[in-house]
Amino acid sequence: MKLKLTLIFLLSACVSFTQAQRIAPDQEKVEGGELTIQPVTHATLVLTFKNKNIYVDPTGGTDAFKGLGAPDIILVTDIHGDHFDLKTIEAINTNKATLVVPQAVADKLPASYDKEKLVILKNGDKTTQAGISITAFPMYNLPDAENASYHTKGRGNGYVLTIGGKNVYISGDTADTPEMRALKNIDIAFVCMNLPYTMDVNGAAQGVLAFKPKVVYPYPYKGQDVKIFKVLVNTGDKNIDVRLREWYPAAK
What we know:
Strand order of the largest sheet: 1-2-3-4-5-6-7
Number of helices: 6
Number of strands: 14
Mean pLDDT: 90
Low-confidence stretches: 5-18
Oligomer: single chain
Distance between the termini: 30 Å
């Protein structure tokens, strides 16, 4: 856990971005328009559809989101600082944002937080916000694994979003769980491989080959060789579009 806290500190201290450093977003055709997928850093991304912005695990302060629209929805997966960064949430423009979180994150919000803008989901719960269906999905380390204590079952949420008729899976920090393997009809997946806290590239690849998303982005993957992940996935199924993007841009 000490190593995890060190990583969180370094991410919080060192993340500073400009628009020039941010990679170009991807555009995915969906019913009614296009879904914009903007990697930001580590576990942070922004999804945009019909001028509605979904911030996932926002970190990095306001600089990380320069040039991006203010959030309509903020999803937080877990309590660790590389996912739940209260300073960033308080710094960005959240005037129109609904915050969707697990109970463990809600418990860490200040008492003054606007409860009308807060939606608390446990694993399996569903909500619709800004016209987007959101299902909270289990994310955890397997109980018999060495890293079991980092992410206990039921504390955090992965999410499955339905956007323009397409299903988007956001893994959060998880192992190759039976629930992930049993996913169906996932069009776009964001799958973690962040040792020692989640999976290695082999475990992530085997999980992906079980539920077969049409598109998969490895994230967060700090220190892992995502090219090996791509080879493993496409050796097993050449039809899965493995998209390798730069989630750790070098400071300039």
